[in-house]
């Protein structure tokens, strides 16, 4: 009776809290609470922390209970009549892992011993007897050796099918799991222990000291009772609707029903859902506890249950303070050697989502409340690559709503998508984002079948596919679709020599000769490439081109088709630019073809003898802008030297060692002159996208030049110390790609999302036209954009959140692949995705997407480096990783007694490594001397635009050993796959007898081991083998080996065409080239004062623990 | 008499400042709710930034010259802030980053609005006091000298 009173008190208290959270419907739920339930609540006897959510006819609530400062979730689940545990967001189940963990016991612990981190140090056998003695052991053992979490089973040694794990009698799990790993220790216990696998369910008993009946059970390594204090949580499994539910939990007396119960349960066990995928190289592998096995088995694999079976991965770091390094096995650290893994964890429920190549969310589980979001320390957001290249057969379908107009929601302007629902026998549709009921236009009407689906569903790709492209009617145009327009702005000054620096003016006489030659050849490469691309330029019949060259004056070229030779007009008044003959500077390519070719042929020789050292970039850009502003288009700037004349001239502000580490450091990385930003903004306004090609070997202030590209949706190509002999090929390919890849012109992009959340910030190369509208004058498949979300309301009421990316653009590429007319048209590309809202932090972490997180991290860190010190940017990355890991650890640590283990959710296992790689990337690495300022800025600009998979490849490049492949006599197709085995990026992977290829998506480095057989080198390089490799380029030689290597490189290049990977040859020990090209990029090594991978992990781990 | 004129001058300057800041706030709010193109909004705001700085500097100099030390001390931090922004060339709103800094900009202007309001009330008060003093100079002498800071 007393207990009941207590309970009522609690309930009143709870009710008061519910009133605070408006979302709660209490009525029906309250009436269902029975005395047993109340008593159980009493058992927790702790403050109600969180809310109840009610779902219509079945009401169940999620409570959060604080216990010993550990937040674990307590579940009350109550249904009327039939059981219905299969709610999609069934947090009750998801909540289970933390609560059950106390019972997880020492079985797993033994497993961890067995997993072999340091077998000799602590003979696990010693612990066995004590474990058998019951719960008392828990704490003691954990003090000296951490428990393994009862998590996903990722031990590689146990890979037999799940059925093998299910002894008919509910056999003990220690027999199943640890045994293979640690046979000697386990032989004895099993014999002594009758198969009583499910003791953990006796949780309620565990609150007090466990009943004697349990103690007598000798399931030695299991110790079901686990740690007494946390076992309190167990009674939450009170719901009688849980299929597996141990009903006796409800009963106050808590009779020990272990054996009968377990045998009853046993036959129910189907394959364990949580088991399948963890064959980790890391022996983190916490074996599944019996409880989990049980649960996974008996419950249908609904969302929450999966949460139960999979918990987290962990990594054994030294548990004893002081001996930290010894605990870490570098080989066991997780490495993304498989490359980027696109998330597909949501599975069938959201099969109509767009492909992750277009839209990746940092977590596929939206937090349901502000408080939850505040405990998610990663950025919450998305990385969008709206035009990502789709493999053949997966192209986005194009839909033409000629008769009806594009179907959109009246209120929120959402486009029709697979998640809208049709009601009122097909006459209305409900918008999935704002829930408004819209009319279906007459022409779009279709009957609904018995299940409420439209009968014409299979003919409506927009209702079945997450990505579609609508042909936009005239309402979506402010003007007729523009012709594709390319404007080339070429710097023809003798580069790099700047007036005002006396030393240079003296030396210039000498330098001229050299640079001039370089310049000449550069001009040739550009001209040739442009020429060869002329035929392939998109939208061929309408394409317009124009050229301006400039040094201290600006040269316009009249290329009217009636002329035979281009006319050059020189404007030297830089302060007041005017455009002579404004009509003839832009010409239709097909009409003026011969004139343009004549111009390009003569361009290299025209400025051969130019000794003009000035470069009036600013005025030239202005002139180009004036020419282009009527039509918009793409402006390609080839800049050879620092702009020195007219508006936008730049100082040699230089890279000063003394500035680093001070508050002025960041100023080096932002545009010096506001001209560039303003010009870029103007360009964007008139639909001009700027791409900057920079070549200088001296400081060119990429930070300023890059702003032109950044705010006009373009990109930077940087070729430091351009030599046409070596870099020519790269420039040719990248320029060709720039001109011919699929491009969306005069585009705007908007991301819509459901009520209660909002995109608050965007990161990438674009300009915002309004709070959520990205203006992208020219966007292509190699550009991605990051965006961060925030919750506008404290609680999300919906169960699902929808995102819709809409890109409105002009399509001009209607030549080969596409089918329609040749005049271009407006299109809208729409990507839709849905994700569930969760109330469980663990679920958020489990659904996280490392790729998207790293991509956003990189963008944020680079942005931070523009306003703070590099050091700050790096430490902010580290700090956020630490915070997140700590938060995650707090979810599990106490129950599991993790001690010295580092734990992280499975999907985030590579995150620490990527974080390290990010801190070591060219954009953020080191300080003054580590990376040239221009290199750093160029890398920063490039990374801001990279899609996720390319970003990950850049951060953790692939390293492949190829000598064996080359030496093998035959080369089959499947062999190619075999040799593509990526190696860890550490110097230890490099064998002096080997030949390695390093590929980061931007360049190859071919590394020749010192003891590589001379044959190989001879075969590959011919006579050049003896020469210093910096002067050698890898060419085709008439040997089998050379052909094979070139074939291999070609294949690697084909797998990623966005940049051309130039081949750098490096011989072992050849400094400083080896260091520059390869060694500094081996991110796992300690280089120049940065920590290596294992130190980094230890460091993270320490910080995680410090205030955990 | 002179002090009344000076205070009226201050009031006018203050009115100008208030108008400028209020206008900027208006533009920013319009921008936020997508009523205004960012190019137009920033152009509108930037046009009035230097006049605002000048007016504010004039105001503080006026206070200094007329010997209103305490009010001058109240005004001078803002002047210094303006000078700092100007020297760092951060005074103008950057159209490429306007949305990112929207909230900060708004906050700064709200604070400025508050400061100007304070000055405005002081001015009104002083003018009122001045006018009263003008009309019945003898009775209010005590009061006005009390208010003379």
UniProtKB/TrEMBL annotation, chain A:
Compositionally biased region (Low complexity): 88-106, 203-214, 223-232
Occurrences of domain Sec23/Sec24 beta-sandwich (ranges): 744-838
Annotated SUPFAM superfamilies: beta-sandwich domain of Sec23/24 (SSF81995), C-terminal, gelsolin-like domain of Sec23/24 (SSF82754), Helical domain of Sec23/24 (SSF81811), vWA-like (SSF53300), Zn-finger domain of Sec23/24 (SSF82919)
Region (Disordered): 82-250, 325-344
Ranges where the Gelsolin-like domain occurs: 981-1030
Domain Sec23/Sec24 helical, chain residue ranges per copy: 849-952
Location within or outside the cell: Cytoplasm; Endoplasmic reticulum membrane; Golgi apparatus membrane
Keywords on record: Cytoplasm, Endoplasmic reticulum, ER-Golgi transport, Golgi apparatus, Membrane, Protein transport, Transport
GO cellular component terms listed in the entry, alphabetical order: COPII vesicle coat; endoplasmic reticulum exit site; endoplasmic reticulum membrane; Golgi membrane
Main location: cytoplasm
Organism superkingdom: Eukaryota
Family: Belongs to the SEC23/SEC24 family. SEC24 subfamily.
Protein's UniProt name: Protein transport protein Sec24-like
Automatic annotation (TrEMBL), chain B:
GO cellular component, one term: membrane
Domain of life: Eukaryota
Subcellular location: Membrane
Record key words, sorted: Membrane, Transmembrane, Transmembrane helix
Membrane topology: Multi-pass membrane protein
The UniProt record lists the keyword Transmembrane: yes
PANTHER family, A to Z: CORNICHON-RELATED
Protein's UniProt name: Protein cornichon homolog 1
């Amino acid at each position: 009776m007393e207990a009941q009173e207590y309970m009522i008190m609690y309930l009143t208290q709870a009710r008061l809290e519910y009133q605070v959270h408006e979302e709660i419907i209490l009525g029906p739920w309250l009436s269902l609470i029975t005395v047993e339930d109340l008593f159980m609540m009493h058992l927790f006897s702790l403050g109600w922390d969180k809310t109840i959510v009610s779902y219509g006819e079945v009401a169940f609530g999620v409570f959060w209970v604080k216990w010993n400062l550990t937040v674990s979730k307590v579940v009350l689940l109550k249904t009327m009549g039939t059981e219905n545990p299969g709610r999609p967001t069934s947090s009750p189940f998801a909540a289970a892992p933390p609560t059950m963990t106390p019972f997880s016991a020492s079985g797993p612990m033994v497993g961890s011993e067995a997993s072999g981190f340091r077998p000799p140090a602590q003979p696990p056998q010693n612990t066995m007897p004590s474990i058998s003695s019951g719960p008392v052991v828990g704490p003691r053992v954990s003090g000296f050796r951490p428990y393994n979490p009862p998590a996903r089973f990722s031990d590689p040694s146990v890979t037999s099918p799940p059925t093998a794990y299910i002894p008919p009698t509910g056999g003990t799990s220690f027999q199943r799991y640890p045994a293979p790993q640690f046979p000697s220790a386990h032989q004895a216990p099993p014999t002594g222990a009758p198969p009583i696998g499910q003791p953990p369910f006796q949780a309620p008993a565990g609150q007090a000291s466990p009943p004697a009946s349990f103690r007598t059970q000798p399931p030695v390594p299991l110790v079901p009772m686990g740690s007494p204090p946390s076992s309190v949580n167990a009674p939450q499994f009170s719901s009688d609707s849980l299929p597996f539910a141990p009903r006796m939990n409800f009963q106050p007396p808590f009779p020990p029903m272990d054996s009968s119960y377990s045998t009853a349960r046993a036959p129910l066990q189907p394959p364990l859902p949580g088991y399948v995928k963890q064959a980790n190289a890391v022996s983190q592998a916490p074996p599944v506890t019996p409880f989990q096995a049980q649960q996974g088995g008996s419950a249908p694999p609904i969302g929450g249950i999966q949460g139960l079976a999979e918990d987290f991965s962990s990594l054994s770091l030294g548990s004893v303070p002081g001996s930290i390094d010894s605990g870490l096995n570098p080989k066991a650290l997780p490495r993304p050697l498989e490359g980027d893994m696109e998330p597909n964890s949501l599975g069938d429920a959201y099969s109509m989502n767009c492909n992750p190549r277009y839209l990746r969310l940092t977590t596929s589980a939206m937090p349901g409340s502000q408080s939850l979001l505040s405990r998610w320390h990663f950025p919450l957001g998305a990385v969008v690559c709206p035009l990502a290249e789709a493999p053949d057969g997966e192209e986005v379908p194009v839909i033409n709503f000629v008769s009806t107009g594009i179907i959109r929601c009246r209120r929120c302007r959402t486009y029709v998508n697979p998640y809208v629902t049709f009601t009122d026998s097909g006459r209305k549709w409900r918008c999935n984002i704002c829930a408004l009921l819209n009319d279906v236009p007459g022409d779009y009407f279709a009957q609904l079948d018995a299940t409420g689906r439209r009968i014409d569903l299979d003919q409506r790709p927009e209702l079945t596919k997450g990505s579609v492209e609508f042909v936009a009617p005239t309402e979506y145009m402010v003007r007729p679709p523009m012709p594709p327009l390319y404007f080339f702005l070429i710097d023809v000054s003798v580069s790099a020599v700047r007036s005002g620096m006396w030393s240079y003016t003296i030396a210039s006489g000498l330098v001229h000769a050299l640079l001039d030659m370089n310049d000449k050849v550069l001009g040739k490469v550009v001209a040739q490439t442009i020429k060869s691309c002329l035929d392939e330029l998109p939208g061929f019949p309408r394409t317009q081109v124009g050229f301006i060259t400039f040094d201290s004056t600006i040269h316009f070229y009249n290329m009217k088709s009636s002329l035979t030779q281009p006319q050059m007009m020189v404007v030297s008044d830089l302060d007041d630019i005017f455009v002579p003959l404004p009509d003839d500077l832009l010409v239709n390519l097909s009409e003026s073809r011969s004139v343009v070719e004549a111009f390009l042929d003569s361009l290299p020789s025209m400025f051969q003898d130019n000794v003009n050292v000035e470069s009036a970039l600013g005025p030239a850009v202005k002139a180009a802008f004036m020419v282009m502003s009527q039509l918009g288009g793409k402006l390609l700037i080839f800049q050879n030297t620092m702009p020195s004349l007219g508006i936008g001239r730049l100082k040699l502000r230089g890279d000063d060692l003394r500035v680093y580490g001070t508050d002025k450091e960041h100023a080096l990385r932002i545009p010096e002159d506001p001209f560039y930003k303003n010009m870029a903004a103007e360009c964007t306004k008139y639909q001009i996208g700027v791409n900057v090609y920079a070549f200088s070997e001296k400081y060119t202030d990429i930070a300023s030049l890059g702003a032109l590209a950044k705010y006009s949706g373009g990109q930077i190509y940087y070729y430091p110390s351009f030599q046409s002999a070596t870099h020519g090929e790269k420039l040719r390919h990248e320029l060709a790609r720039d001109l011919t890849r699929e491009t969306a012109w005069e585009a705007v992009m908007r991301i819509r999302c459901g009520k209660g959340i909002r995109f608050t910030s965007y990161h990438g190369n674009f300009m915002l036209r309004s709070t959520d509208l990205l203006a992208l004058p020219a966007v292509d498949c190699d550009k991605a954009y990051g965006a961060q979300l925030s919750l506008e309301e404290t609680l999300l009421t919906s169960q699902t959140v929808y995102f819709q990316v809409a890109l409105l653009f002009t399509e001009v590429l209607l030549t080969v692949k596409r089918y329609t007319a040749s005049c271009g048209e407006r299109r809208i590309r729409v990507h839709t995705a849905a994700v569930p809202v969760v109330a469980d932090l663990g679920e958020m972490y489990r659904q996280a997407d490392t790729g998207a997180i790293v991509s956003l991290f990189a963008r944020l860190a680079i942005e931070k480096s523009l306003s703070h010190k590099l050091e700050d940017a790096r430490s902010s990355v580290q700090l956020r990783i630490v915070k997140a890991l700590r938060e995650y650890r707090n979810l599990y640590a106490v129950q599991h007694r993790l001690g010295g283990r580092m734990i992280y959710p499975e999907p985030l296992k590579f995150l620490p490594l990527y974080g390290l790689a990010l801190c070591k990337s060219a954009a953020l690495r080191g300080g003054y001397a580590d990376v040239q300022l221009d290199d750093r800025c160029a890398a920063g600009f490039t990374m801001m635009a990279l899609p996720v998979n390319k970003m990950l490849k850049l951060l953790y490049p692939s390293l492949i050993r190829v000598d064996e492949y080359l030496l093998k006599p035959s080369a089959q197709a499947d062999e190619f796959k075999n040799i593509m085995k990526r190696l860890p990026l550490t110097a230890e992977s490099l064998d002096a007898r080997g030949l390695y290829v390093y590929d980061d998506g931007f360049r190859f480095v071919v590394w020749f081991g010192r003891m590589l057989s001379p044959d190989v080198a001879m075969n590959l390089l011919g006579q050049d083998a003896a020469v210093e490799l910096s002067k050698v380029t890898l060419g085709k030689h008439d040997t089998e080996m050379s052909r094979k290597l070139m074939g291999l490189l070609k294949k690697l290049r084909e797998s990623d065409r966005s940049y051309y990977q130039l081949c750098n040859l490096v011989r072992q020990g050849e400094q400083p080239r080896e260091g520059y090209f390869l060694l500094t990029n081996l991110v796992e090594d300690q280089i120049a004062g940065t920590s290596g991978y294992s130190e980094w992990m230890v460091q993270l781990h320490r910080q995680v623990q410090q205030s955990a | 008499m002179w002090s009344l004129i000076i205070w009226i001058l201050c009031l006018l300057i203050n009115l100008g400042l208030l108008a400028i800041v209020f206008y900027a706030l208006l533009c920013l709010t319009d921008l936020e709710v997508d009523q205004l193109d960012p190019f137009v909004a920033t152009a509108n705001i930037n046009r009035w930034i230097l006049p605002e700085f000048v007016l504010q500097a004039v105001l503080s100099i006026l206070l200094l010259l007329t010997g209103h030390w305490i009010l001058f001390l109240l005004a001078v931090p803002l002047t210094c802030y303006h000078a700092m922004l100007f020297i760092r060339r951060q005074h103008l709103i950057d159209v490429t980053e306007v949305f990112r800094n929207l909230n900060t900009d708004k906050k700064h202007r709200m604070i400025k609005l508050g400061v100007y309001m304070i000055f405005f009330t002081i001015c009104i008060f002083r003018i009122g006091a001045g006018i009263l003093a003008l009309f019945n100079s003898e009775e209010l002498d005590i009061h006005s000298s009390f208010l003379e800071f």
